[in-house]
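Dear Dr. H.,

I hope your travels went smoothly. While you were away I took the liberty of generating a structure for the chain from your last submission, since the lab meeting agenda had it listed for discussion. I wanted you to have the full record in hand beforehand rather than looking at slides cold. The sequence, exactly as received, is reproduced here:
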Amino acid sequence: MSKKKKSRRRQPMRGYVGIIIIFLVIVMAVQIGTLYRKNAEYQQQEAALQEELEAQQAAAEDLQTYEERTQTEEYVENTARGKLGLVHENEIVFRQSDD
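The corresponding predicted structure, in token form, is as follows:
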């Protein structure tokens, strides 16, 4: 009879352990699902930021090209002629009359 009493005591404990294990598996499954969703969101965000980075790098290259072009003597001279109306000392300027 002592064997039956011991086995009856172990069965409820096994049931509790089984319930706890099932509960932990469910919690882990929910956490894994949440992590997969966050990972997908982060990958989308990374792709968007990568596109923005490439666009900014292209804009920086364009600015660098513009800066190099504006540093030339030809650009400075053309700007001075067109916007300021300046000429070299030895040049003669002809203007049309408004008549």
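Two observations you may find useful: Residues 2-84 form one domain. The CA atoms of residues 20 and 30 lie 15 Å apart.

With kind regards,
E. W.
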